[in-house]
Specification:
The protein has 509 residues and is an alpha/beta fold. It has 18 helices and 15 strands. Helix 17 packs antiparallel against helix 18. It is elongated and about 95 Å long. The protein binds one RNA strand of 77 nucleotides through strand 1, helix 1, helix 6, strand 12 and helix 13.
RNA sequence: CGCGGGGUGGAGCAGUCCGGUAGCUCGCAAGGCUCAUAACCUUGAGGUCGGUGGUUCAAAUCCACCCCCCGCAACCA
């Protein structure tokens, strides 16, 4: 039995769940379902990152205590994922006591080994960005983000000797080609590591910021948010017990968007090295959804809210678009036009209509009772079956490389083939000849098999749809049928259900 | 000399790592079918795969140089 640990980033509680959060989470959910269905025990972690100046500020604006504010937004994330049917195994909050304890324990450990030191640092600090700027980074002496002049601050802080681990990290990335995927992000990190890596300031004085995890060896300071948040990947497993931790660490796949590449590719591995823990296995980096905001309706504003999408179009339609229209790693555009076109063409027409027509014929011609197959199959029957068998192999190959769009493309190739098969064999014509009824029964049997295989294939991507197809075929809800050979699934006298519209066409006008 | 991404039929994209008849969706034209969600099937029109040069029997794909667009600013995946 192999194991797999899958994480999303901890979402910062200064915004409500939007398209980007949803994408990462849907990807994780799909992988979780995919690997689980293949017998790989998978632990899926998500949660919220709740400390730092920005949260303290946002809370103040709302006239709330930071914790109360964080509670509210964190709950919004959790309930959103619940409503979307996301199959996470644990939801962590950086304000959870067990997490704080782990952060403090690791800080103490690294401090004891001498990789954390107390030093003085002076520089231009922008309160908006919560960071120091070098003079080179400033534009006209101003912070490029906030157009404000940063203040010169001289203060003492704790520093992590990150630079000490630069060579070790470089070696690791070079000897593990699939450590950071896709490759261009790996290239980017390697390029970054050509320059000397400085040490990382990991504390904030309490005089400036209260809202954080206290540094265990100096109560005048709290922990820098990234040093706090990254550790969640370990603290969540520890919380589940020593055995869970031993089982799943370091078999971790961290899913992130490109904006947080540096903390995950550089801070986190060096932190693990200093803490004496093995490095995670993969960092999988995806791109951004580019909003075509000009075209969006005013009522929707500029944000795609997952719950609204689910209510308007169904979660599976939304999932399908996200997985099908973005090449993992690259940016993609989001527009309602593209969404509607995609859903109508692929879900309503190709898939939904296929299910309808097959079940309609089964009902009309044989009262929904599945007819037996004869010993010898026609060439087109074999071709149809082989096509689906090939798709199974294709999916496996594509999923290994995070090519979700190709996996779906190959499934839809099989659906095209199936629609072609209907026209080629024309059961509705054969039915006019009583002598051909037996053949019609066989053709429909093959078609039902193709629907069954489709439902198996779709399970990780479109879980609701997959289970609806199973229930239309009157198959047990939770029993995987992927291992049952084509033609051996339906027992004599098996009765399927009447057709149903899985995806209504979205009418525009 | 910043870093990265992209430039493929009218539109939007895949294919580029692992060279070998240029593919998908939408749109358009003609035909077929009637089981089905005005769906489905077939055929057609439409591309010098940004440019130039190179490697090769063969390049969208590899190499070199050049041109153009986008992000690295916003809450943020």
């Amino acid at each position: 039995m192999s194991h797999f640990f899958l994480t999303t980033p901890l979402f910062y509680v200064n915004a409500e769940p939007h398209l980007g959060h949803t994408y990462t989470t849907v990807i994780a959910d799909t992988l979780k379902r995919y690997y689980s269905s293949r017998g790989v025990e998978t632990f899926f972690l998500t949660g919220t990152d709740e400390h730092g100046d920005k949260i303290a500020e946002a809370a103040k604006e709302h006239g709330m205590e930071p914790k109360a504010y964080a509670d509210r937004i964190s709950e919004l994330f959790r309930s959103t994922w619940d409503a979307c049917g996301i199959s996470y195994d644990h939801f962590i909050r950086t304000t959870d006591p067990y997490h704080q304890k782990t952060v403090q324990r690791l800080l103490q450990k690294i401090y004891d080994t001498g990789d954390i030191y107390f030093g003085e640092y002076g520089g231009f600090y922008c309160f908006g960005c919560e960071r120091f700027y070098t003079e080179k980074e400033l534009v006209d002496g101003k912070c490029p983000d906030h157009q404000k002049k940063p203040e010169y601050i001289q203060e003492k802080n704790y520093f992590f000797r990150m630079g000490k681990y630069q060579q070790q990290l470089l070696d690791h990335i070079q000897s593990h080609p699939d450590f950071i995927r896709p490759e261009h992000y790996r290239t980017e990190v390697l390029a970054f590591l050509r320059e000397p890596l400085g040490d990382l300031c990991i504390s904030r004085p309490r005089t400036r910021l209260e809202w954080g995890i206290p540094i265990p060896f100096d109560t005048d300071y709290v922990t820098y948010v990234w040093f706090d948040a990254l550790i969640n990947y370990v603290s969540a497993l520890e919380y589940k017990g020593e055995r869970v931790f031993q089982t799943y660490w370091p078999k971790a796949n961290h899913l992130i968007a490109k904006d947080i590449l540096k903390p995950h590719a550089i801070y986190w591995p060096t932190m693990l090295m200093a803490a004496g823990l093995p490095c995670y296995e993969h960092l999988d980096v995806h791109g951004y959804w580019i909003m075509e905001s000009g075209k969006m309706s005013k009522s929707l504003g500029n944000v795609v809210r997952p719950l609204e999408m689910k209510e308007r179009f169904g979660m599976d339609a939304f999932r399908y678009f996200l997985l099908r229209d973005m090449v993992f790693g690259q940016d993609a555009a989001f527009s309602f036009d593209a969404f509607i076109t995609r859903v109508n063409a692929d879900l309503a027409n190709n898939l939904g209509n296929l299910v309808s027509r097959v079940l309609a014929m089964q009902k009309k011609y044989f009262s929904s009772k599945v007819q037996p197959l004869s010993g010898s199959w026609a060439a087109e029957d074999l071709k149809l079956r082989d096509c689906f068998l090939q798709v199974g192999r294709d999916i496996q190959r594509h999923m290994g490389g995070l090519y979700f769009h190709r996996a779906l493309e190959s499934i839809w190739g099989a659906l095209d083939r199936t629609n072609q098969y209907v026209v080629q064999t024309s059961p509705f014509v054969l039915m006019k000849d009583p002598e051909k009824h037996k053949r019609v029964g066989e053709i429909l049997h093959h078609l039902l098999e193709s629907l069954r295989m489709t439902s198996d294939f779709l399970t990780p991507f479109l879980p609701e749809t997959a289970s609806e197809i199973r229930s239309l075929l009157a198959l047990p809800e939770n029993k995987a049928t992927a291992d049952i050979p084509w033609g051996s699934l339906f027992q004599p006298d098996h009765q399927v259900n009447p057709p149903k519209v899985l995806f209504p066409r979205i009418e525009t006008s």
